Amino acid sequence: MVYVKRLVILILCCFVITGCFNKNNKDLTDSEKFKFEYEELNNKKIDNKKLRKVKIDKGNNITYSSIDEIVNMINSKSTFAVFFGFSKDQYSRNIVEELMRAEKDFNLETLYYVNIENVRDEFKVSDGKLVCTKECSSEYLELVKILDKYLSDYIIKYEGKEYNTNTKRLDSPCVISFIDGKVDYYTTGIDKSMTDPYEKITKEMKSYAYNKFKCALKCIKKATGKNVCVKNSTC
Asked: Are 175 and 158 in contact, with CB atoms under 8 Å apart?
């Protein structure tokens, strides 16, 4: 009987320590879900490459959203900031800590987050021809149209050749601030020197990302209060 009681206590402690009770995402707040989503992949391997370890503050102000919700907010001339990315993307993992630091420093009430792992169109090269393997939604196309001048052509590189899809694609990651429904600032936070997402992140890379996110977020709170926000030359 004593053994059974000790076993039950041990199992309960395991649940508390590992967070097993909270691993059902339905029971998590958006802040907790975001933290869990990124941290659960720490040092995990995808395609034989180890994902970067990240630490997310549980006090973040992330709110999950979707492409169609973001488009509706733009069309209703809302003022907000949004982060597009996904936890399996090494580039997103490379900048997410600096984004969270900037969000905390500005005490932003809400930073919207859209997981875009499965929302963009996909192509592959088959028998020397470009084939669309996954079509995106009409809402995604509308967003791409809105952001057209900020996006690059979507080029597929295969066996030393480049194939132009004749479309543009939302970057992962990217952070965008909208004021009254218009783009105020667009940035990936990725320094040009970061040519390999799995390389060591330097202080300069972190500083670049943080400063870009500051530029993206600094006018949001003032804009909601109808105060004028003027960015400095570094933005």
From this structure: no
- Are 114 and 173 in contact by the 8 Å Cβ rule? The answer is no
83-97 pLDDT tens trace: 999 999 999 999 999
* pLDDT computed for residue 235 by the predictor: 80
Give the Cα separation of 86 and 150 in Å (integer). 20
Per the listing, tokens 């006090």 go with 59
Averaged confidence pLDDT in the chain = 88
And the tokens for 72? 């509706």
Q: How far is CA 124 from the centre of its chain?
A: 24
Q: Is the pTM of this model over 0.70?
A: yes
How many C-beta atoms lie closer than 10 Å to residue 228's C-beta?
A: 7
For a pLDDT cut of 70, what percent of the chain falls above it? 86
Cα 230 to its chain centre, rounded Å, is 26
Domain spans, the chain: 18-65+72-116+170-229, 121-169
